[in-house]
Amino acid sequence: MMHPKDEITIVDDYFPRWMVEKVSQDLEFMPVRYNNSPYADFDKARFFGSMLVENDRFVDVQPWWFIEYFNHCMWNDLCKEWTVGHCHRVLLNAQIAGQSGCDHTDADSDNYLSVIYMGHGNSGNTVFEDDVVQWKLGRLVIFNSSVIHRGEGPESGYRVSLGAVYPSVPIRKLVSIDGTGAP
After folding, report:
1. How, if at all, do strands 89-96 and 57-58 pair?
2. What are phi and psi of 24, to 5 degrees?
3. N or C terminus of the chain with fewer C-beta within 10 Å?
4. What is the largest CA-CA distance in the chain?
5. Are strands 112-120 and 158-167 parallel, antiparallel or unpaired?
6. How many other C-beta atoms can be found within 10 angstroms of the C-beta atom of residue 162?
7. Domain 9-36+53-178 maps to which CATH number in 2.60.40.290, 4.10.640.10, 2.40.110.10, 2.60.120.10?
8. Where are the beta strands (DSSP E) in 29-111?
9. For residue range 13-46, what is the model confidence (pLDDT) as tens digits?
10. Cα gap 129→31, rounded to integer Å
């Protein structure tokens, strides 16, 4: 696999089918608020969602088995060469038909790795500047967090994805970059 700083990586069929279906059922009914927006600018875009994890801690929900498993899969298998065993955040993003997101980045620094998990629904592509990744239930999309992207609303129904962000350099180095530890 190429380094995520160099390309967008798509991983299909990583999780077993039973798990993909169970997670889809869980995500369909997970609580959300109509308050998510890239850069917190509600005049530009707003969609449904919840912050699930911030700095390795669950924040809006009780601990959920899949997030724990997901993070360990990223740290110890899929992204083990690029992550450092810390989860900066996991955001649940939900959209209904006609509700597309706006272009955004997940971090202002290229020292972060983003992983999108397409968790529930039947459509709603992820659009990058020069690429469109088709919606597929259970698909993982791995890329540098500083790459501009957006999630398209589904053609019908309800689309839910998980957006995870991991530092790709040791936390000590991130803290020393800007002195605050913030991305």
Report:
1. unpaired
2. -60, -45
3. N
4. 46
5. antiparallel
6. 24
7. 2.60.120.10
8. 33-36, 47-54, 57-58, 89-96
9. 999 999 999 999 999 988 876 665 555 555 555 5
10. 31
